[in-house]
Specification:
The protein is of the alpha/beta class. It is built from 11 helices and 9 strands.
Length: 310
Amino acid sequence: MRPPALILASTLTLALACQSPPSKSQPTATTSEPGAAAASSGGPAAEPVCAAAPLHTELLSLCSFDLGVPAIALPKVTWTADSYHPLATRVITLDQAGLTDPEGDQGTVSIQAWLADPPRRIPEPGEMTLAIAGDVPASTVAELWRGLSAAGRTEVRVLVHVTDDRPIPQPRDPAMLAGMLAELPPDPNERVMFVAKGVRGYANTCPPLASVFGELANVSPGERCAKLAELASAAVVECGCRELPDIMTLLYALTIGFTPPTGRAAAVPIRLDPGRKIAPPPATTWSEVVAANLRNDGLHQLWIDSVAPS
């Protein structure tokens, strides 16, 4: 499986190559390009600094996050760990609305509907990572545990928000990012073209920016974000930092996604072991289960013995 990080730079490069090269007669952004309408609202009041070092630091700070991690309120823990990047799988989301698996086209469905027709292989081998919102009842997580175990799954990874003194990175232009999110096509392939169109639009102002993505195509997935930070900061400075808030916001979307994260995520491996049961009270939430049982990012054995009230 190919990673979602950085919207698959090689695919983005191909998408850019399939479009006509920008010319001086083309505007730097039009209302048909992502974020153009919102960009007119203006960026931060402070005069931006046009130097490679601070821009590189800003972009590198985004690499502790990943657009493959859903921007939901995960359980918060009091310890810290390395950031999780879904390089080997796509993250399944479970929240109050239901279960969402990006591998399929089912949208958000019930746990039982997903188990009845899973869009991916459930038993090992292969990694399975779950982003479970903190306010989900423990009994709902227990229902998923039982279904996964019955289907042959023995281990999963769950995401948590770790303690971190560093502030969560924010886009240079929040209104532009929100505008891009509102215009974002639902189809993943169309999203790649949508982002490519945005990059192409700003390449009119800063042509070296477009060449950055070609250089990323041969970089390993785990190193792509750091390389993007290095190359993009140099390219933007080479262009005199024209359209800086807009370009930095576009790079934010490429790296983190179109919704600012609510925390830095780490993954905790859990073995679904019915011999290591906990029986939480009926009103217990997943956040409370995590706080009481997950002490670090090492392997835990955890089975939730709970059924939703009828």
